[in-house]
Amino acid sequence: MQIDLHHAAVYALCRISGMSSHYAEIVAFASQYVDDAVHQEALIFKNGGVFKQIQTGHRFLNPKEINVNEALDVWLPFHFLPNGELDSSDPFLTAPNSKVLALLLEDIRCSSSENVLYRLGIGLHCFADAYAHQDFKGLYDTHNNVRLLAGVEKKGAMEYSGRLGLKLFDRRGLSSPSIGHAEAFANPDIPYAIWEYSRQGKTFKVNNLEERYLPGVKNIYDYLVYFLGRNPQYTSGCQHRPFEAYLDIFRELLSYQGTKEERHENWLQNIRENRFEFPDFNEIDRSLVYNEQAWFEQAVEVIRVPRTKNLSPQRADDYTYHRKKNFADSHWVKFMQAAAEHRFLIIHCFLPELGIIVG
Fold first, then answer.
1. What are the tens digits of pLDDT across the range 205-229?
2. Would you give the distance in Å from CA 116 to the centre of its chain?
3. Residue 297: which residues within 8 A CB-CB, separation 6 or more?
4. pTM of the shown model
């Protein structure tokens, strides 16, 4: 899924399930930031200390640099959760309602960590992607070699620039091992797409809206009601309505056709106009936006250092970093801590608990 679902739809789902706007804003930002945290370099601060970033999203990758470590660090734990079913055809296939996802969501619901809202946002990103990315793996695997027969996104792999859904080429024009839904391009991530692909002689036709997105948002809503039942400190105090009361507007917004930026803005505009009829509608709802740099800029000051002719443009020495006063308690640091915990739990706890050793 893309920013329209991971940010705006998650915000709306948090609010209609009874969550306060203040907390919903954090959860929705964390959900989308999973796609936007694309750096893993350690920051060395001029005013003391060092901080290792956790990469949860993807930049364009050099085929010579990809390997199973990168798949286990990013793709598998954050975007393509394995189903974890040892008695299934393949325990590494992404699937909704999987054992791994169930363990993750229950752990988040029962967590007493101060970072639980950031973990919730990351978990909801995985929850949503479990629907959109089903039948693909977060590993470099021939299972991901499919032939796209029909769909909304039909651009050649060299032209497609999405962070997820890349098919990479080396200088000889040879494709790298497939990962995720690269060869289906962006079709799994477009809510209104009806697309078709073949794998090993079998043909599959997918109606995203009816088969994946509407069931996905309904189950996310149900989980949020369940989460808030145990964690009432995050509620607004307003009674939530059944999901069916919102079915028409979700169908309308998910059917809206346009780029991911246009779809996102359409969701935001409907939230700002209180189309969801939040009983405690307030200024946060009225002015909801997303700026992927906002959390980082609140925590870290970046100062550009003039380059000398001996420095490469890619050198990190071109910048210096300073911790801001609120660094340790900032949203950015708490997200990074939550992301590190999330990855550790998936790779070293939940999968091994199900008999799958990947770490």
1. 999 999 999 999 999 999 999 999 9
2. 16
3. none
4. 0.91
